[in-house]
Design brief:
Layout (H helix, E strand, L loop, with lengths): L30 E6 L2 E6 L4 H7 L23 E4 L6 E2 L10 E3 L3 H15 L16 H10 L16 E2 L4 E3 L9 H9 L5 E4 L6 E4 L12 H5 L5 E3 L12 E6 L8 E7 L2 E7 L12 H4 L14 E2 L2 E2 L2 H18 L4 E6 L4 H14 L4 E5 L20 H7 L7 H9 L5 E5 L7 H6 L4 E6 L4 H5 L2 E4 L8 E4 L5 E4 L12 H11 L9 H11 L15 E2 L8
The structure holds iron/sulfur cluster (2 copies).
Length: 549
Amino acid sequence: MSDSTLQPTPPAPTMGTADTTQPPIVVNPELVELSVDGRKLQAPKGANLLDVMLEAGIEISYFCYHPGLAVVAVCRQCLVELKGSPKLAPACQTPVAAGMEVTSSSPRVLEARRQMLEFTLVNHPIDCPICDKAGECALQKQYFEWNHETSRVDHAKGRKGKKVDLGPRIVLDQERCILCTRCVRFCAEVAKAPQLVIANRGNRAILTTAPGHPLDNPYSLNTVDICPVGALTDKDFRFQVRVWNLSATQSVCNGCATGCPCEVHHHRNRIYRLVPRRVRDVNQNWMCDYGRYTYKAQGKDRVTLPLVDGKEASWDDALGRLASSLGGLAGSDPKSIGMVLGADATNEDNFVAARLARSFLKLERLYLGAEPMGSEGDKILRSSDPNPNRKGAVLSAGGALKSSEELARDLEAGALKALWVVGDRLYLPEAAQAKLGGVLLVVQATHPSALTRKAQLVLPACMWPEVDGTMINAAGRVQRLRAAVRAPDAALPHWEILTRAARRLGLTLEHSSPQAVFEAMRQELPELAQTEWGRDLPPVLLRFAGSRG
Ligand code: SF4
Ligand code: SF4
């Protein structure tokens, strides 16, 4: 919630690591001076007072306000005093003006906030011990910070629906809903699918779906994030783990070429969910539902050990076989060897692959392994390109790569005797696939597939939540991935497999870490010269302070 309106408009996105929260576009750059609790502040004229206070580090409670949604001021939790105004005003609905004098901590303001909290809690079931949101609930947090008094409610609380099935991914607890309307606004304004409504009035008001319309839009899980309490719950995450046991690692979704910045939430080497990080120029505040569930592939049905002719082997045996079968061919007929770089692999992986192929093995046939483009994107976040790193694969390879159509033609023409595939994305027509049986096939893969079943050598590779590295999204932004969990068994990052293979082939392609590869890329590729590896950010244990409501 620390969106800044106090900083100048940032430059247009270019190549550059994008890990930090970006300030919103400042439409009117005219700065005015105001005071909050006697403290002088400068802010753009017309900026949202709540944003300005948060940016200045002034504590203020709120529920219904969200920086990505229209302001409605229904929760009345951010009331402040404005000099010259007889009534308290909601800060979220107050544009900043020159000379404004704001009081946010007077006894009158604090009492108003305390009373609003008491009102909000009147019918709220205090079932925190069994609530998924406990530990990251804005209501819990505000209660401890702004009220912290024993309940005066001496009658039965109002009863509403429990376990209301709203759609394929979401279950609602109507009693917990504090009617902030964030979820209603999100569906109407961002997802463009007005599937939620507040029905009835007064203490009978409930959140529900429009009759006959489930909550099933492709962005529905964002409502779970922005619900300040535990009313909307994700069926996938519900009752799986207490949030204070989770650790958060900053990374980037690999579901498509948008590359939404995300946090990977994990516990004891298991991923439980992906949630968006806020980067204005990429995902604003959101992720799509498809992207959120891509983590599931990480723990399922992996290639965990090297396979030689379909049988499990040690790395030593597998690389020995690679050296004996590919080494001679590379010396005598390098043109007959092809290497496929991965639009799902990191820049570091592809850079090392291209270097090994071009500079050391003298290969000429380098292809791009990519899932075919989809139809149009959804004009919200989803890109028509389902590959997370098509741009990066081409750039880090240092030049154009042949397409999979060209690979299919080369295979059908019998021009290849061996093919080395980095990554899991090779899509070929049936005729070309049939020809794979006649070539020496080496595949660095994360999951078993039709391709690995044809391969003489399968080398187990890490998935994106298991690696450090960089990728370039469709807008040309270099973004940093950070390893959140350990890879299963013997799986290694692609760059490391390639480096070990090179060593076994008698070549001195030495890279000690993905950061070392990144630095080598920066030296060689002018497009990356101005980019940075970014800070090391160890996983952060989610505790109460990390309220996402
Ligand atoms: S379900 Fe949550 S987000 Fe929706 S209105 Fe209720 S409290 Fe607000
Ligand atoms: S839009 Fe693409 S990158 Fe963003 S969450 Fe969805 S799949 Fe992931």
